[in-house]
């Protein structure tokens, strides 16, 4: 699984740490832009294997990834 996180997200370090703990085999990259500029500064957003995902909290984001 390839997860790309925007560098402008205010909690990107915490987000990356949580993703790494739940998905140790995933490749997580912090990119300069993931084409979700309206959302990436305020809420967890990422491009996961080419699919754009955004949620209101890191916990909800991880739940969605677990379901898939």
The secondary-structure class comes to: alpha+beta
Q: Average pLDDT value?
A: 92
The CA-CA distance between the termini, in Å, is: 11 Å
Individual helix count: 2
Total domain units = 1
* Main pleated sheet: 4 strands, mixed
| Count of beta strands | 4
What best-fitting shape do the alpha-carbon axes yield?
globular
Notable features of this structure?
68 residues; alpha+beta; 2 helices
Tell me what the structure shows:
- The protein is an alpha+beta fold and 68 residues long.
- It has one domain.
- It is 31% helix and 26% strand.
- The protein contains 2 helices and 4 strands, in the order βαβββα.
- The protein has helices at 12-22, 58-67; strands at residues 2-6, 27-31, 45-48, 51-54.
- The protein has a 4-stranded mixed β-sheet with strand order 2-1-3-4, covered by helices on one side.
- A hairpin with a 2-residue loop joins strand 3 (45-48) and strand 4.
- The longest helix is centred in the N-terminal third of the chain and has 11 residues, at 12-22.
- The chain is globular.
- The mean pLDDT is 92.
